[in-house]
Amino acid sequence: MVHYKLHYFALYGRGEPARQLFALAGQPYEDVRISMEDWPKHKAEMPYGQVPVLEVDGEFLPQSNAIYRFLGRQFGYAGETEIEAAQVDMIGDLFQDYFNEYREYFTVAVGFTQGDKEFLFNSVMVPARNKMLRYLSNILRSNGTGFLVGKSVTYADLLLSIHTAGMEGIAPGFSNDFPRILEHRERIESIPQLKEYLAHRPFAPF
């Protein structure tokens, strides 16, 4: 049996899509949650000095999107055809571009840096959110299945539901103007494996 070990902070963040993929698949794994205090001791052990890192039978795989793609394909959550796989990967890459657009707001909102949170929300987060969620709402409407790609859940759906759930904790009402996005999150979080996982996962602030 393959032994999986996921290294990430004791946060949701970029580790959460991998954790939810393991939950969906019912796949046992070792969830190594690193505290901020302990991170300096572990940093040198990680490729590129960053996390998340997935260990697969002792082989280290860094980079968030590479991890999501790998696990999605291993467990069957990366699209059913080559074009669907490409569409799922596209949305994964799009989320990285989106994060780069709102990073300045996010780092202030969670206390990593100093700044005017309200000003940055309105000037940075709102334009990025509106562009992204409108685009994904249009994809949901066009696809017509309740999922972003194909007829079943993929890791692209997890990226969206995790993002909107996390942002609700930082900016309540974050998705209220996007009913398809709200419906999508409810649908994904109602999947039995995820519902069970979400009910029992360790709390994290973001």
From TrEMBL:
Residues 2-79 form the GST N-terminal domain. PROSITE patterns: GST_CTER, GST_NTER. Its EC number is 2.5.1.18. It catalyses: RX + glutathione = an S-substituted glutathione + a halide anion + H(+). One of its GO terms (molecular function) is glutathione transferase activity. GO terms for biological process: glutathione metabolic process. Signal peptide: none annotated. Keywords: Transferase. One of its GO terms (cellular component) is cytoplasm. Residues 81-206 form the GST C-terminal domain. The keyword Transferase applies. It comes from the Eukaryota. InterPro entries: Glutathione-S-Trfase_C-like (IPR010987), Glutathione-S-Trfase_C_sf (IPR036282), Glutathione_S-Trfase (IPR040079), Glutathione_S-Trfase_N (IPR004045), GST_C (IPR004046), GST_superfamily (IPR050213), Thioredoxin-like_sf (IPR036249). Belongs to the GST superfamily. Sigma family. This is glutathione transferase.
